[in-house]
Amino acid sequence: MPITALVLIVVGIGWLVTYYLSGGLFPVGTWGYWNLAIGFAALVASLVVLSRWR
Asked: Where are the transmembrane segments (predicted)?
């Protein structure tokens, strides 16, 4: 499970950094601010996975 959480953290941060550095053109330019929601959703999902880890 920690591998899944780490992957979600990397994907979430990578998505947000890519969105900001590209000026909103990447990963998907037509989605606009939904890119932020996707990045933060990945981070929240990682918190959920980590909270269930024993």
From this structure: 5-26, 32-50
